[in-house]
Amino acid sequence: MARIVIIGAGISGLAAAARLATIGHQVTVCEASGTYGGMLGRYQRDGFAFDTGPTLLTLPAVYRDLALKTGREPLEQLVELAPVDPESRHLFADGTALSLPNASRGGVAQALDAALGAGTGERWGAVMNRGRAVWEATRRPLLEEPLPADPGALGTDPYPAPPRRGLARLRPGGSAPTLDQVAARELGGHPALTALLTEYALRFGFDPRTAPAGATVIPYMEQTFGVWSVRGGLRALAEAVYRRCEQRGVEFRFDTRIEQDPPDADLVLRPAPAEAALPGRVSVLLALRGARPPGTAHRTVVHAADRAAELAAVFGSEPGRSEPGLPDRPTVQVLRPDDPSGRPDEEHEAVTLTVTVPSQARLDWTVPGVAGRFADRLLAHVDAAGLGLGERVRWRVVRTPADTEREALAPGGAVPRPALAGAGGAFLQPANTTGRAGHYLLGGAAHPGGGLARAGMSACVVAGLIGPA
């Protein structure tokens, strides 16, 4: 039995603690703040409740495995899960509306044809088929196994070259090394399909002008395996894993900042240092008067009025150059869960707007008035798309990367990105082993990267490296 100290009670630290305690180790979790969950926070006021971090669950199999391996119970006995259907509703700049079904690639193709014209579903489906090839090539080395000692092979993008037809066969080259080139070459530059592909990348902090084509694995995974909501928000998932840790005898020390290696530990697990300059998120929590309209989608995406201007504002006017600013009418996720635990009664609604923005390290969100004016613009933007939220606002709270930095101890308030193959390894995360005996890295800034599912995978990989007592 090893004495293991885990630094940080975020979801990856909790998951690792539960796994390691279950296989016989003595585990202590030290958390600098006064609570657990990390980015899985919850804001409550006047009977309203909002997630302050991730809001939806993809790849629930990761937490189903955790529940079974640490307690022989299905995840559904720990939290109440429900598939989100439609998976998302999209409102494009030209006024076109599109609803995508959950976990149905055939249904997605039909919806695209109906909303955007015949043939668009086939185009999108062909790209998703190549995303499937990326999934099959990288699932184990990027999600389920430790990063190879020599990760050189993962520097090559596994996205397969599409078939070349007509005069294209006479031109040199044929691969699509970036997402933007996928959109131009394989989606025909179709504005709505390009915006759809961009949204998946932007949500995870990737610049589609530089992200490898293999990032198509992100929409492939969502559209294939589905998206799920948790009653009580994703904070309920953190609570369930915390309770499992307590059942397995994990000791917690809150308000405990660890600056040096604990002297009483055989093994130490800590979060990898995040890259502060990565994009962050602004969330606007809206307490609304009036009932949630029947048939309202859980997630509506209002797309940017000017895609190029949005990318220039968030990432810089040219790929690789940092000239951050705030986009005028950006891509906004509007989250409207049908969850009674999030509202005081049926005559009110809790809504969250989220948008990808420069991090606190690149744009000072603490300057008075910046966050409020930006929230005003976001509300005007979504209302111009027909949502009619502004006139119903009882109160609102604006949360910026500065809040994430302070509460989740995330440098710059940046949101860690999933690891991707390609681009010479530029989008890989540090390995879970450190080169120091008994020291491991986990969490969103370590292999296999950011996102709720990958945080759980990080814990699984580290537990596998340590092994049973």
Q: Please, could you describe this protein's structure?
A:
- There is one protein chain.
- The chain is α/β, with parallel strands linked by helices and 469 residues long.
- Among the domains are: 3-83 and 227-272 and 429-466, FAD/NAD(P)-binding domain (3-Layer(bba) Sandwich), CATH 3.50.50.60; 105-166 and 174-220, no CATH class.
- Helices cover 32% and strands 17% of the residues.
- The strands form four sheets. A seven-stranded mixed sheet has the order 8-7-13-14-15-12-16. The protein has a five-stranded parallel sheet with strand order 10-2-1-11-17.
- β7 (88-91) and β8 (97-100) form a beta hairpin.
- α1 (11-22) packs parallel to α12 (452-466) and α3 packs antiparallel against α4 (120-144).
- It is globular.
- InterPro entries: Amino_oxidase, FAD/NAD-bd_sf.
Protein traits:
5-stranded parallel sheet; FAD/NAD(P)-binding domain; about 30% helix; about 475 residues; 17 strands; alpha/beta; 7-stranded mixed sheet; 12 helices; oxidoreductase activity; about 15% strand
Largest sheet features: 7 strands, mixed
Structural class: alpha/beta
Beta fraction: 15-25%
CATH superfamily of the domain at 3-83 and 227-272 and 429-466: FAD/NAD(P)-binding domain
- Indicate the low-confidence ranges by residue numbers: 167-174
Rounded to the nearest angstrom, the radius of gyration is: 22 Å
CATH architect. name of the domain at 3-83 and 227-272 and 429-466 = 3-Layer(bba) Sandwich
The helix-strand sequence is: EHEEEEHEEEHHHHHEHEEEEHEEHEHEH
Question: Taking all residues together, what is the mean pLDDT?
Answer: 93
Number of strands: 17
CATH topology of the domain at 3-83 and 227-272 and 429-466: FAD/NAD(P)-binding domain
Strand order of the largest sheet: 8-7-13-14-15-12-16
Residue share in helix = 25-40%
User: DSSP helix count?
Assistant: 12
* Separation of the first and last Cα atoms: 4 Å
CATH class of the domain at 3-83 and 227-272 and 429-466: Alpha Beta
Protein name: Phytoene dehydrogenase-like protein
Biased composition (Basic and acidic residues): 336-348
Keywords: Signal
Region (Disordered): 317-348
